Amino acid sequence: MSNINSLASGTKTIQLPTVSKPWYTNDLASLRNCYTSLYAGPERNKLRNLYVAKIRSAKKNHARKLVEKFHDEGGVWKAIRKRAHNDNNWNIKIDDSHLTDPQLVANAFKDFFSQKVVKLRKTANVAPLMDALKAHVKNFVDWDLNECQPQDVAKAIDAIKPSLSSGPDGIPNILIKHVKFEIIPALTQLINCSFNTGKFPNKWKSGKIIPVKKRGDKSKLSNYRPVCLTSCLGKVLEHVVRGKFNNHLESILPDNMYGFRPHRSTQDAIVGITDRIKFLKSQGLKVAALALPSTPVLHSTP
């Protein structure tokens, strides 16, 4: 009885973060309180996903209202300049010293992230992969990248998220979306020039590295991960290429491959393998399933 009472008297304390954003409403705070008060499970995941969707919608609506508000006073650029910035008072500990100067902090992050790249870098050996593809994929139609149309560029712009982050050129997605119809002719010509020459603009290859805290002590470099922000215009070009190549790729990939493909999910894989098992058993066969990191392989025997 004492153990039961001890369990029953236990409490779970939840400390909500202080949020000072104009778009963060009481309804969002209440929704966050609901999902954080639950233990891990399907219901908590459902409320968390709803909360994230509401957050994104609130940010988007707030940005749109700012642009409309400052329509005659700078428009999009005025809205971008008004966004809140993080505290830049860095205090990074290296050995027994503390770095607070922004330039020294930037150099410390540069050296730390560069060392991680060197440690993780491996020499690519694509020969076995190409041999396996040639052995299993035969009689496929050749494909080449042809010029895009304005509607392809418009579709790619619609697909990007309306975020305020930008690469070294300082052009964010939300600006591209707001001037979509004005830039489509020139951007289409620029993308087709890249296709015809086989060159990706050098300006779009560069990026700025932003350290993002993962967990733990803020003064430790190891508690940060690098996020590279590249040109958003370059991402539009990548969207166009992916859209043109995706249809051809779908005609090559096998039907029993579900991972990382549009309109295919884990549920589809489960339904497919379940139907296959039922079909084989209806034929009087014994079925054995071998679980692998990729799609399960079925073997049947009389």
**Oligomerization category of the chains in this entry:** single chain
* Count of alpha and pi helical runs: 11
Count of folded domains: 3
Bin the helical content.
Answer: 40-55%
Low-confidence stretches: 1-17
Give the DSSP E fraction (strand runs of 2 or more residues). Answer: 5-15%
Q: How do the strands line up in the largest sheet?
A: 1-2
Radius of gyration: 26 Å
The secondary-structure element order is: HHHHEEHHHHHEEHHEE
Structural class, judged by helices and strands?
mainly alpha
Distance between the termini: 57 Å
Number of strands: 6
Largest sheet: 2 strands, antiparallel
Summed over residues and divided by their number, the pLDDT gives a mean of 82
Shape: globular
Structural features:
two-stranded antiparallel sheet, 10% strand, mainly alpha, 51% helix, 3 domains
Please provide a written account of the structure.
- There is one protein chain.
- The chain is mainly alpha-helical.
- It folds into 3 domains: 80 residues, no CATH class; 161 residues, no CATH class; 36 residues, no CATH class.
- Helices cover 51% and strands 10% of the residues.
- The strands form 3 sheets. A two-stranded antiparallel ribbon has the order 1-2.
- The longest helix has 28 residues.
- The protein is globular, with a radius of gyration of 26 Å.
- The N terminus is likely disordered.
